[in-house]
Amino acid sequence: MGFCATVLASVVATASPANGSIVDVTSPTTSWTAILYGNNNPDPSNDQQTGSSEGDIVGNLNHPSVYTAFGDGNTPSLTDGVLGFRVRVGADVNPTGFKTALFVGIDGNADGALDLFIGVNNSGSADTIGLWNPGAGLNVSPSTTTIVSTPLLSYTETATNYNWTAVTAVNDPTVNGALDIDGGGKNDYFLSFSVAFADIVAQLSAKGITGFNENSTLSYVISTATQANSLNQDLNGVGKNYDPAFTWSNLGVLSSPMTPSGKPVIPEANSALIASLVTAAATAHRYLKNRRHRRGNAQD
């Protein structure tokens, strides 16, 4: 197997999307797909800007901090079904239950700007799963991004679309005793939720991102927040001290490209790189050929 084929097989093997008719928010992590980053960065512990460890996204090289799952509806349509997310945080602090906000920003057209937010806002009086518009800024970095606090669409949290539970060996068979990654003395927790994929498609279309479906390419930026108008708590994939003017990509918090259905996207090969490799291979071939020719003449 050649080098390119080997790399392709390795990347594809890392994906195991949950393509059922629904997303079971209580299912084990083995039914979900880890959201990956180019430098394989986990999220450091105890790095939330404000608030409690409940807003601290945690993970390491062996235990991902964020996952996704897709239920395709078991229909031929590419725009129906359910999209789900699971995020690991440091604790459930008193009173019980998730009491902050978590947002998944979507870059749906690979321009580096966030086009839509999916998330959970339990920071106020009404617990809500929803879709939110970015603010009027460029939305290309922490300092240029805000969230319109009134959701575009909201969903009541139910047992079918929302789950808040302690990390265990049952819901994470790979846990191997790592129940408290941040070392805070409390069991880590999983926040899992899902939304209708057709609603995401419709909202992206309203922003001019048309033709979006379960096989389209997107990237994510994931963060907790103390309220539903900014990303002000823990930005997944970077430590506490960072320059908020840096772009998502420069900070390393923009996930590797993937499809909503959980498949990794192999970047297109760089034509200049391919040309240089072809030239180098041809040069090496000519060198070896000339060397063999000179060796044959010397033997004569």
Give a structural overview.
It is a single chain. The protein has 2 domains: 15-251; 271-300. It is 18% helix and 19% strand. The protein has 4 helices and 10 strands. The strands form 2 sheets. Strands 1-2-3-9-8 form a 5-stranded antiparallel β-sheet. It starts with a helix and ends with a helix.
Strands, total number: 10
Give the integer mean of the pLDDT values. Answer: 85
Question: Which radius of gyration do the C-alpha atoms yield?
Answer: 22 Å
Number of helices: 4
**Main sheet specs:** 5 strands, antiparallel
Strand content: 15-25%
- Share of helical residues: 10-25%
Shape: globular
Number of domains: 2
Structural class based on helices, strands and sheet pairing: alpha+beta
- Uncertain segments are 1-19, 269-274
Can you tag this structure with a few keywords?
single chain; 300 residues; alpha+beta; 2 domains; 5-stranded antiparallel beta sheet; 10 strands; disordered N terminus
Secondary structure blueprint with pairings:
Blueprint: H1 3-13, E1 33-34, E2 66-71, E3 82-89, E4 101-107, E5 116-121, E6 128-132, E7 153-155, E8 162-166, E9 189-196, H2 197-206, E10 219-225, H3 248-251, H4 271-299
Antiparallel strand pairs: 1-2, 2-3, 3-9, 4-5, 4-10, 5-6, 6-7, 8-9
Task: Please sum up the structure shown.
This protein has 300 residues and is α+β, with helices and mostly antiparallel strands. Helices cover 18% and strands 19% of the residues.
